[in-house]
Prior knowledge:
Largest sheet: 10 strands, mixed
Amino acid sequence: MIRTMLIGTLGLSAGLARDGLAQHQTLAPESRKLGAESALSLSGMVGGKPIQVSGGGTCGHAADASMGSTSASRWTVEYHGSDEGTVQELNLSLLRPKDGGPDQLSFVLKSKSGDHRIETGMGRKHKGEGTVTILPSGPGGRLELSGKDAKGKPIQISIDCPAFSEAQTDGS
């Protein structure tokens, strides 16, 4: 009788553990969920003035995105600070064609010292110019932007993302 109960208990425990493991394996890590917020940091020079902020924001990456009919990879960064902070808002969207074509970059920075915008790429009226270097590191990485905004002011910033969530794949 005790032996039967012991075998039944062990069998039930193994079944519950297997079900729990299966559920655990199907859950996505929190940092990879679409729009998951994480602590990012931003530093550099904008218009000759130093900036350095850190706080909650989102960093995204999609290895397979599109630019119309062109296959591309997509990186996004969004940060919203306080109205009194050095940086009130930062939005960066980069589409990098897999065929080696020119990047499509959209960058907007709203700061205490003014607004800065860069828009480049296919089918766009260019506003400023810029290049982005991507330095992967574990689940995240660093995006380094170097360029000039639409008014000709120099921009040199680094954005450190602890992890990239799944970015929207449509480049439109």
